Amino acid sequence: MSEGLPVEKPNETRTGAAPPPTTATTATPAPNTPPPGAAKPNRRPLLFAGLGLLVLAAIALYFFLPGLYEQETDDAYVDAHVISVIPKVPAYVQKLYVDDNSAVQQGQLLIELDPRDYAVALQQAQANLENAQSRLQAARDEIPVADARVAQQRAELQVAQANSKLAQSNLRRLQSVSDVRAVSSERVDEGAAAAQGTQATTVAAQVRITAAEASAKLTRTQAVTAEAAVAQAHAALAQAQLNLSYTKIYAPEAGSVARKSVESGNFVQPGQLLLSVVPERLYVIANYKETQLTHVQPGQAVSVRVDAFPNLKLRAHVESIQRGTGSRFALLPPENATGNFVKVVQRVPVKIVFDDSADALRWISPGMSVETRIFTREPPRWLGLLN
User: What InterPro entries does the record point to (predicted)?
Assistant: First the structure.
């Protein structure tokens, strides 16, 4: 190598020449940054756990929160005061104006019985009444006649007493002059006989007065008896009229026919069930546990759902609570004093009356199962979907 040639230094660059390639520096990794190729953490279990907690909270709200303001039971059914139509007189059924499940109005004619026997009985009762009235009039007419007899006998008594007084006076005069021989003893004897005769006539007149008064009293008693007979005839006539009216049977209340067991031509007896009328006014008997009735009171709002129509929600209210559990009125009530005591939560019937109109209840029948909710407090508005 010659000394005259310039020597190039390694770190120097030539003017106008491209810079030499530089070596790339290695970047320092972040503290939380996973190294290249490392697996990412799985957050799905945490997400599912959170969703599960939300679902459990929603279920808890759905099942436990309503218990703070409502009481619910499915041991409930629709009921009604079903009216039994029975005859009051025995007769043959002449006409039948209704059929199974027919709708009836109050006062509508349902059944007509054969009225001929009872029409004849009514005519006989009318005749008996006229006869009793005639006897009463005759007895009343006899009263003044009996009083006249009493007056006549009293007048005769006065005449007899006057004759007796006169005879006694004549006898005393004859006896006063008989001592001086002014009159004969025969005249004295005749005077004494006349005095005794008039006295006997007076006694007889008194007896006749007593008999006449007794006869007048008997006449008045007969008049009272005749009045009683007239009253009895009036009662018999009224009963005959009632029996005739019973041959037509009317609907006692508006509703529908159920359990019809009579046909035209049947012979019916008093007390025999012919048909039933289910009224339009229905109610619910809900058997709540005794532990649910702590805050239940009459007048509280009730929501009713019918099993046959699950989409139908009816409004109602509590009318009354029965004084006694269902087991207390059972055929064989429990006897806890026997020693075999097992504490069982009892159920108490609660009567619930519908607030809805009859149009909403036309498809509901007594005996249908329902579910009821009694709102013991005002439910929160934001929980309206749970009601």
Answer: AaeA-lik-b-barrel (IPR058634), MdtA-like_BSH (IPR058625), MFP (IPR050739)
